[in-house]
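WP5 quarterly update. Target: Alternative heme synthase AhbD. Source organism: Halobacterium hubeiense. Length: 360 aa.
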Amino acid sequence: MTPVDTDERPFVLIWEVTQACELACEHCRADATPNRHPDELTTAEGKALLDDVRRFGDGQLVVLSGGDPLARDDTVELVEYGTDIGLRMTVTPSGTRSLSTEAVHALADAGVKQLAVSIDGATPESHDSFRGEAGSFEETVRAARDAREAGVPLQVNTTVCQQTVGDLPAIRDLVSELGAVLWSVFFLVPVGRGRVLDPIPPERAEEVMAFLDETAEEEAFGVKTTEAPHFRRVRAQAAQDGGGSGRQRRGGITAGDGFAFVSHTGDVYPSGFLPEAAGNVREQSVVDVYRNSDLFETLRRKDDLQGKCGACEFRHVCGGSRSRAYAVTGDPMASDPLCPYVPEEYEGALPERQASPADD
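Structure tokens (predicted):
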């Protein structure tokens, strides 16, 4: 596969097609509500956006997210349109009644390349409590099995915080049982409703990274982290110590560098967890915003990172979570407070830790 030049195009572009959702998840970045916003991009505007995204090049990966993308009645149409113009379309629906067997098969027929579902607890009780909806676990697992039957590759997303971290080994077993091709593990960023959750401290995060490295070596499915790029540093160090292959799915992706996010109303962000708009697709090309805006260009300059992230020998492999740095300090170029690693000769200030009641 030809390497992607992330100055020119992202590995992945996420379009939040709506913030409407039946669930009331405790960590929701979008503060999702039951009703659709009147200023959402229309079907025609959405197709125009996909036409523009096609300018990034062949096979650009596009994720339709929410909210719950199936709260829109044109999501299958958008998947089919994107597929027809050469995009790789994936969808991250919510585990609700909208994610019916019929809906899964309709997405498959439209050409969806992957379906991502969220599992945040190993039991119905723990998952449904986190998701704020009784029956969500059952609907999610059923949809995952429907995807396998429809021949659609499955991704499982899991949020890591104090409430969920103890369930990770059992969730890993469920990911394997469901035949998923990828486990995407998201480390909490304090935005949206996620501000009220307890993050895990940096030392615990490092333990989870080691567990994920072991999982990546042992399981048939791939493992990636979201908003925790120092997993790549942990994997590289494990390989240096002879403890693993250090095999990576891809190079370093951080907000604005290999990643772009379009909101339901068309604002272009470096990430859904870094809500600093660099433009709007109703007025500008998302391609031009990604390539040329000051914010995106700054985020791609790893040598301009501050604090220990800027001094770190892994900065071009990792780069730290720019979203978490922004959420905690207000500066997207500051050090990631979740990473405990300190470069050997670094003598500067250390970042403030992400506050957690569990540390009291």
